[in-house]
User: What shape does this take?
Amino acid sequence: MMENLLRPIYQEHASNLNTMGILIIEKTQYDSPITDGFDVILLIIVKDQEQSWYVKHYEVAEKTAALHIVKEDILMEWIDTSGYRRAVEWIIYGKTVFDRNEYISRLKEHLRDFPVEKRDLRKAIEFSKLIKRYSEAKALYEAGDTKDAHSKILLSLHYLARLSVIEKGYYPEVTVWSQVKNIDLEVYKLYEVFIEGNEDIKKRIELMIIAMDFVINNRAKTGANHLLELMKTKYDPWSYADIKSMPAVQPYTFDLSALLSYLVEKSIIFPILEETKGAGVFQRKYVVNKDV
Assistant: This one.
């Protein structure tokens, strides 16, 4: 077993008081994506180190292994923001070979629980990505760029799938469509129809834009709840700069403009125009609809 061959490596780290836990993940299928093409992954979580994420590759008995040494705060950032999705699966499916003060056990339990406040952030991240790609798909379709619109629809469906998994209380995995097939048949059917439909590509895009508009609209308030709750913390209108500067919004700041535009379109938030020194020039600010 690879674990036996790698034991001298991980035992050296286990003796270090800086090490919180060690997991080993072995490839179970020939084409399994979880191990990034390696036969085994060795994940070592540490409290502190000079490099926040250190990686080393090995070959043992004609098998390949990748060692990842990750600082605890970086790992938690990955978990909370989907910064590196593989890491979540490594923790969920990995075999614990060292666990200081039950750190790994608590971490696995944390992932099973998926606290609501963290779920709201992850929903906002995926929902804002979904909105941006869906808006791009519509614009490209209307401009006659069918193939580019097709690729954006596929991306939109991917983010919709991830959002659907989070809504059900799970962390999205790399093989997200396998998850969706078991927990949200409506979203899976959208993907299936788009991929396998008999209509020509232009008709499939047209039908998917209509279908997704309905599906996205039904998820708008819950998908954007993280942002809406932040904006409700004050009564005064928010400028875009005010919103963008909030630390809590940073994980989806690149998709923020698209998200705000969509929420205005759906009257979930309202634009407020404030006068500037320029004649006839107004600064656009935003408030949450009181009925939301």
In short: The chain has twelve helices and eight strands. The CA atoms of residues 271 and 286 lie 5 Å apart.
